[in-house]
Records
---
Amino acid sequence: MSEIPLFYVYTYNDVDRAFWAEHLKDWVPPRLLDAHVHIVDPAFQIEPLTEELRRSYWVMELLEMQDVETAARCIRTVFPGRDVGCIGFGFPSLDWDVEGSNAYVFAEMARRGWNALALVRPSWTAEQIDTLLAQPGVLGVKPYYQMIGRDTQQRDRYLEASIFDFLPHHQLEALDARGAWVTLHVPRSGRLGDPDNLREVRELRRRYPRIVLVLAHLGRSYTLPHAMEGLQPLADDPGLYFDNSAVMNPEVHRFAIKTLGTGRILYGTDNPVFYMRGRQQWRGTTYINRTSHSFHFNKEREAPEIEAGYTLYMYEALRALKWACEEESITPGQVQAMLHDNARGLIDRVLRNK
Ligand SMILES: [Zn+2]
């Protein structure tokens, strides 16, 4: 069979079909729930990225957003024969029409029986949060430090912000009152293990215990040292959840399963970014993204015969998770918990409280 387009520069080809058949087909359960996927009509982008910003950091070149029809088509392609649900949200940036993005995502996700999180401006009042949460299928919010202010020069102007700078207490009170969902991408270059992050996550859990708090990307643990610094100190809180989106490192998946158990990990892709083709390599606390497309950031190419064997990042992430499960003797039931049931149970809890 031939190569077919997925989205943007991403395609699905015979390497992917063979990878699915060899590594994933017999392991991926019949039902999946992607708890971290960006879905929004690109028409809601009001300010195009400057070329300077686009070339400033690898992920900036991958921020083309997929509308809901594209997302559904890609899901049917990459998960043949599977029943896949999503928790979707727009792209958290003030270069986008935040209100318009939210309205689009809420309507389109509800139409498909999927669920949505709202992007939030830190300036919004508790009443505005309440109005968002009252929309059908909306579980909660996806705050982000870039929502503090616009910066056309640099991506990470607010990286060192406090969590409460972009998710203020008056919003947390409204979210707690409704038992709503928060998917939190932790700030700070030290990632989850930064003492200020650990203290603020504990404070958030203590003061707002009804919130379903999900730390995105296993707390941004893309390497084993970061996972050890961030996950271990929070392992004793059974009500704290993690999505494993954008994590490709098998040792990180294994450490997360060992440390947190399988009842608190939710599957996520971070698509559309993880339709990229290639692999990741790690050294200490750093990683390098290998890919075969001629992005600006793609300076260190591998040999053509190696690149020809690349599959989708999201497939590599699933293979890494599968390896971790095998190493830790995880049962098929526990695999299904991480890939579907944990998120489903939390969604049902939030919807009952609405
Ligand atoms: Zn994301």
---
Amino acid sequence: MTILVTTPNGTVGRYVTEALRDRSDVRFLVRSRAGAEALGRVRGEVVRGSATDAADARRAVAGVDRLYLAHPFAEDQVAAETALGAAAAEAGVHRIVKLGARRFAGPGCVPDAVTGVHDTIAERLRSAGVRELTVLQPDRFLQNFLPAAASIAGGTLPDPAGPGARGYVDARDIAEVAVAELLAARPVGGEIEVSGPEALTLPELCDRFGAVLNRPVRYADVPLDGAWRAALADRGVTPQVIDGLQGLYANYRREGVARLGDGVQRVLGRAPRSAGDFAADLLVPALHGA
Ligand SMILES: NC(=O)c1ccc[n+]([C@@H]2O[C@H](COP(=O)([O-])OP(=O)(O)OC[C@H]3O[C@@H](n4cnc5c(N)ncnc54)[C@H](OP(=O)(O)O)[C@@H]3O)[C@@H](O)[C@H]2O)c1
């Protein structure tokens, strides 16, 4: 058996890499020398290439049986996942564990590009003839808050997701579910919703972080206005991606209390990590530069 891991340095992918680092039957796809260095020591093979390049994709999937497929939300996401997935199917890969996203369920929610692309990609993978396709559908990652660690430690968590409550999920749990599905000896497939253990509003999430940091943390609502768009544009985010994120956050604001997915319990037989676990394990070390 050979497993190909895409985005091995990604938010979820880095934990998939952690779990598979000591196996000789794993191949990691990175784009650059820096990406290869960031991986650190792995027992398996590191291949250089872009998921959007047809020749790179064919080279990456040659001889592979199982694939962890992920890609950031970007203009090239459908092309990248479809190209790699179709090349994989053609090369005889029979199992794909794809990182998707939880669908919105609230009555006021409307289709948005960020979550919508996953249905398009999954449909194309099925049409390409992939026999076993597991689509992981996580809620919002707790790791999204790591870049704001200093602000949180200073007492403020700014975020545009508004008043709803969500099952914020630790990317380590998503990766563990992905690895379990990749390695399972039984046939796999279908959709797996992955959430944290409880639906939290952002003020409640602040309380969980504050309890670990031992100081009050306050939620600051960030409106989805022109200033928000301009700040993203200043960071080099393209108008199309900003539009997609605006649609995503508008749905977060509309959804109310998100339904919890049971993927961690069902696949791993244990409760999901909590926001407090995340704060203690990753947010506090991030403050100290770890
Ligand atoms: N964030 C959330 O709250 C959330 C919630 C639910 C679902 N999701 C889903 O999660 C997915 C993103 O997963 P993630 O956050 O784990 O990934 P990620 O961290 O955004 O992935 C980043 C990695 O993608 C690699 N990459 C980008 N373009 C590439 C290409 N053309 N070829 C090869 N590698 C490429 C980059 O490699 P380099 O280092 O070489 O640039 C980088 O290491 C999205 O589909 C999103 O819808 C996210």
